[in-house]
Amino acid sequence: MATSPCSSSGVSSSSSSGLGADAGLEIRTRSVEQTLVPLVSQITTLINHKDKPKRSDKTLQAIQRVGQAVNLAVGRFVTVGEAIANENHELKEEMNVACIEARRAGETIAQLTDVASLDHPESDSHITIFTDKTGVVKAARLLLSSVTKVLVLADRIVIKQIITSRNKVLATMEQLEKVSSFQEFVQIFSQFGNEMVEFAHLTGDRQNDLKDEKKKARMAASRAVLEKCTMMLLTASKTCLRHPDCESARINKDGVFHRMRLALEQVIEIVTDSRPNGENEMAPISIYSGIKEFKNKVEGLRENLYFLSKENLSTMLEVILEHTEDFTDSAYTSHEHREHILELSKQAKMELEQLVSVWMQAQNQKTKDLMEDLEVAILKTCQCMNELKREVHNAATSLAADLLKYHTDHMVLKALKITGVEGNLEAVAEYTCKLSEQKEQLVEMCRLLRHVSGTEPLEITCIHAEDTFQVTGPQIISAAETLALHPSSKIAKENLEVFCEAWESQLSDMSLLLREINDVFEGRRGEKRVYLSLPRPGKHNANLKALKPVKLDSEEQAKIAKLGLELHLLTSDVDSETEKWEDQENEIVQHGQGMSSMAYSMYLFTRGEGLLKTTQDLFHQAEIFATEGTKLASALHALSDQVHDDEKPLLLLEAEKLISMCKQLQVTAKTSAQGKSATFTKVDACILKTRNVMTLLCQLLPLCCKLLKKNKVGNGCLKPAPPWKEDRIRTGTNARTPERRVETFGIKSLENHVTNMTVLESK
């Protein structure tokens, strides 16, 4: 597919000041977004300055400094943009126009803020920020728009590099597919290995830069396929060269090439944000997402009785219940689970009928009794859906646990290897049937797990696992048949080993995936340590007796939702920063991870989810969060004693700021609050102050990493970029999860294989 890099460009962004870039542009990468943040911050400072009758010299000087700083920064930025334009002629015209606009806007802002030397900066004789506020806003908008265009054009170049790299890989693959001599294969495969390493680095950087977690998960899945298929391509091609007349060897090799092409295509679809022939991606709807949407609609009736029709609600439930048939029709669902799911499905229909009846009456006559009846009907309907969700979760996860336990010995794979070496075609045929049965079981397991995965990234991981079992099963069979036909062939034996290892690796990954799915269901975040420090059964009971459990109602949750979402995004940013550190045992990293985990729990509280059930739980969590922040500040002081750098004072200043903010949060969390209004105000204050601490943490982590790297303190900081290291899939939003067991695709292992291919083994 010929794909244009231009299709992925664009940015849409807006600030609280109403400063928005072009509506047709969309920011899709973190690097573009983070480059814009300081500029937006400085411009917002100018726009939002308070108009006072009298302004001190200090204020005027500050305004002028900000204006000059913006202009200087834009000047340096534009210089880089112009250099990029000169190196990329196809984008030169667009880039130069954007650079000219940015430079002009920067100069305008500098002129309007040149106020420190004027006796009367607000007089009409001088056009300044005080006399022409509209002019500043226009210049600011133009500046943001043009800078964003420059960034997006630069991003197109990155996309073009990935497409060019993909095209080189495809061209070399075509040569490998047609090669007939072993010597020629060795030469071309060496080139192919280097091209794959380059492609791996480019796509790995892109994957880490993507903002969309769903795209990031899809990219990780595609790169995992390419990682494993590269070694499969090597052994499958060698086997085909060694046994050119063997049909099963040819089928085995063709399957690898086909899968690699599909994976390469998907990578390009993700980076260019396009689909072949303009198709829209239609992701299958899971039971979890269906129940979540259904409950949101039902609970929305509290606020508005007229925003949807009863037919709409009935249709939504019908779709959910149709999906439950995947469980009730499955041969692998236990009788007990099947009966419970059918009972709950029937109950859900009855509860909805009752809800619709009361709802229709309330539309005609909004009495107190009817509204109370409606509330009861809403609660009973949602409760029934929660029970249905738990039942399908239990059905899927118990099946997965049983299957994974049953298949841990890999007996079928071992038997295929043994019977293949013996040349026992009849036994191989028997065990290939058993492997096909195992494949069907595992594919069904993946389909059911997808329904209960809980997040889009995990859903994509389930789909990837399903595809892997579907494809790898037949490839193992063709590899085993080849070995049975040529039992003395070392390369055929090696080829079967490679495919069996891929199967075993996927089974191992499924165990981790199952644990992540359970963690999401229980409101936990992967393998993060539990920093909740909540009272456990048998502990601190004396403190609990006097506490009256209080939950936020739907109105309060709606008010605090925006703040919670901001906290959610910050936890993603902190997780991204901590994952860059090579030394995961570093004290700063561990405190940062702990604070991120607690902040995420507080975000879940704003949604009425997770382990924090009452406001008292939240306040207790805020205290522990503040304590962890104080410990982090101590670690920062310890770091400052070991480094010698111009930025050391900044580190100390930020550490003191962190201590101050954590003390304020502790005071707020410990302050007593009586009554509903006061309690909500306290909740709002705790979330707000936690958000502020997390914002500071986002700035501190890269600073510490930079200082560690420059001063070579401890075990180092940043991870090297391994060629085919699959990114960890996040739960919820960017949560840190355990490392998957992946076979890292290293160039050394490839070189070893190429070196060993000097002579074909004898029959």
Automatic annotation (TrEMBL):
What keywords does the record list, in alphabetical order?
Answer: Cytoplasm
- Choose any GO biological process term that the UniProt entry carries and state it: cell adhesion
Main subcellular location of this protein, as a coarse class:
cytoplasm
Does the record's keyword annotation contain Cytoplasm? yes
Family classification: Belongs to the vinculin/alpha-catenin family.
Q: Which PANTHER family match?
A: ALPHA-CATULIN (PTHR46342:SF1)
> Which named protein is this?
Alpha-catulin
Q: Which organism is it from?
A: Chloropsis hardwickii
